[in-house]
Design a protein that fits this description.
single chain, alpha+beta, Uridine Diphospho-n-acetylenolpyruvylglucosamine Reductase, domain 3, Vanillyl-alcohol Oxidase, Chain A, domain 3, 2 domains, eight-stranded antiparallel beta sheet, six-stranded mixed beta sheet, 16 helices, globular, binds flavin-adenine dinucleotide
């Protein structure tokens, strides 16, 4: 009888893998919310503590396995996944104690510490209970805090960078399963009082790294530097928002001295009366009978004194919230109708903006940032980031592009959204180094127009205007490192830092696609 010889190192590896297999769940499929990415990993787990996270990563790492952690799966792109060891965040979802003795300013009551898998929704409730709030937010709250950081998720307002700019300190498990705490060079932690142990578990050593380059690389790194365990955020005092939504024509927005020119010149957006801190647009790319285009301006004014907290049903024109709710369950038939009668798309886009017009809606900040039940519509979205000085060129390019696609029966099923975001130092955030204009193109998931429409927009805006794809709202447009180097001036600095913490364990489908895996498969 032939006997297979097993060497001692191989035996150790097999035993470790068996332990990993015993600890981690078997191979059920994971798919993202938009159903654009699916994977059946070899191992899947929901780590529930720093110790477990480190132990799993250490075992996987010593056995040459890749590890990725998903957020709540709201990215359209492949950035969250590997087919090897996949963690999901459900059990890393609690607020944590912030040990103030470690801080340079122990009295700073705007700092909060949470686990990486806590969703924006739960964080809003938690912050509210402390009289605090996120400084700015995107239009939705189902993502995890680590998930929004990793893709440079953003809201609108040129005084505000991506949400990752609100983060002050990151505890991350890196190659080999060790815990590091990464902060800016002048970070919040006092190195002299830092005890080099994790707050929750004094058996876990933590290495403090206060280094701008490491911090600016780590806070937007699409899961490719390590797995984040916790973050410290700097919150704002709780505030309220007043929202005004007004239908206007493109010719009025872009005219000399108009709101867009004023915004781009750094002036208050309104020449008379108060100007909002948050200003964004929606529009139909299809021309009206006069060759002009309908836009909806959304203005949001901050208030640190309480405003009436109106129910969502009072937002927009009467019945808007109800109809939006109906569309979330009628998406498939609606997509089928538009596919059959593409010209209907023009009417629907106009009507969508009319229904949202509102001269006064007020609520606590996070309920106004959240755009409402429309977020639940089965849809796919891409978003492209431009230098904000390209705003007019990009919008007018979309007019021509949509006409050309319309002639091929490829139509928009939702208005285009435009938001403005302050530049950031995060090295590979879409907003790195330039104040940015974001163009979001959304399509009903089941319309046959959606995929060709979104892909054409991504390709055209990238090739003609150098638009950077949102790391999450992307249909895997980029396929090479040279493209990244062309888009991101700090790319090589990011890569040096990424390699400092990732020896290959945190490679994944995205790093293979981009040709940047440390250990390509
Ligand atoms: C309905 C909807 C509304 C949206 N609204 C906006 C918006 O207003 N503004 C905007 O900019 N974007 C928006 N997005 C995009 C969305 O915010 C991003 O795609 C975001 O990254 C999703 O977060 P998530 O928690 O679902 O993470 P996932 O999509 O699951 O993962 C995103 C990335 O984070 C990494 N990651 C997650 N957890 C960890 C961890 N603990 N450690 C290391 N890496 C981790 C993953 O590996 C992956 O690379 C929206 C998307 C949807 C579906």
């Amino acid at each position: 009888m032939n006997r297979t010889r097993i060497s001692a190192p191989l035996l150790t590896r097999l035993l470790a893998l068996a332990a990993l297999g015993g600890a981690l769940a078997g191979c059920d499929e994971w798919s993202n919310v938009m159903q654009t990415e699916k994977v059946t990993p070899q191992y899947r787990a929901q780590p529930d503590s720093a110790k477990q996270l480190m132990s799993y990563i250490s075992t996987a790492s010593s056995n040459g396995k890749r590890v990725r952690m998903t957020g709540s799966g709201h990215s359209a792109s492949d950035i969250a996944i590997t087919n090897e060891v996949l963690f999901t965040p459900e059990k890393l979802n609690q607020p944590l104690n912030l040990d103030r003795a470690r801080l340079k300013n122990p009295a700073d009551d705007k700092l909060v510490r949470v686990m990486s898998g806590m969703r924006i929704r739960e964080m809003n409730t938690f912050l509210d209970s402390k009289g605090l709030a996120f400084t700015n937010l995107g239009g939705y709250d189902g993502q995890t805090i680590a998930g929004v950081m990793m893709t440079a998720t953003h809201g609108s307002g040129l005084a505000y960078g991506p949400i990752a700019d609100q983060v002050q300190s990151i505890q991350m498990v890196v190659e080999g399963g060790r815990m590091v705490q990464i902060e800016p060079t002048n970070g919040i932690t006092n190195p002299l009082t830092f005890p080099r142990k994790l707050e929750e578990d004094s058996t876990i050593p933590v290495e403090l790294i206060q280094d701008d380059n490491a911090f600016n690389a780590a806070r937007v790194s699409f899961g490719s530097m390590g797995v984040i365990y916790s973050v410290v955020l700097k919150a704002d005092t709780k505030f309220w928002l007043r929202e005004v939504r007004t239908k206007v024509k493109w010719s009025d927005i872009k005219k000399p001295g108009g709101p867009l020119e004023r915004l781009l010149q750094g002036l208050p957006v309104n020449a008379t009366g108060p100007s909002p801190e948050h200003w964004e647009l929606q529009y139909t790319p299809y021309a009206d009978d006069n060759g002009d285009h309908t836009f909806l301006i959304t203005e949001r004014f901050r208030s640190y004194t309480p405003l009436p907290e109106q129910p969502a049903s009072e937002r927009g024109q009467p019945g808007t919230d109800f109809v939006s709710g109906l569309i979330t369950v009628m998406e498939m038939p609606l997509a089928g109708i538009i596919d059959t009668f593409p010209s209907l798309s023009k009417v629907i886009l106009e009507q969508t903006m009319t229904s949202q017009a509102d001269d006064n809606y007020t609520n606590v900040s996070y309920k106004v940032f959240h755009i409402g039940v429309v977020n639940d519509t089965p849809a796919i979205a891409i978003e492209a980031a431009f230098d904000y000085n390209q705003t007019v060129a990009a919008i007018e390019r979309s007019f021509a592009l949509s006409d050309s696609l319309f002639s091929q029966n490829i139509v928009h099923t939702s208005p285009i959204a435009i938001r403005f975001v302050k530049k950031t130092d995060a090295l590979v955030a879409m907003q790195n180094g330039r104040n940015s204009m974001f163009m979001e193109v959304i399509g009903l998931k089941d319309s046959k127009s959606t995929q060709p429409l979104l892909k054409t927009y991504q390709r055209t805006m990238y090739q003609e205007l150098g638009a950077r794809p949102h790391w999450g709202l992307d249909l895997n447009l980029l396929t090479s490192e040279s493209q990244l180097r062309g888009l991101y001036p700090k790319w090589d600095l990011w890569k040096t830092q990424q390699r400092r913490f990732n020896g290959g364990t945190f490679d994944g489908k995205v790093t293979d696609r981009l040709g940047i895996s440390v250990r390509p498969r």
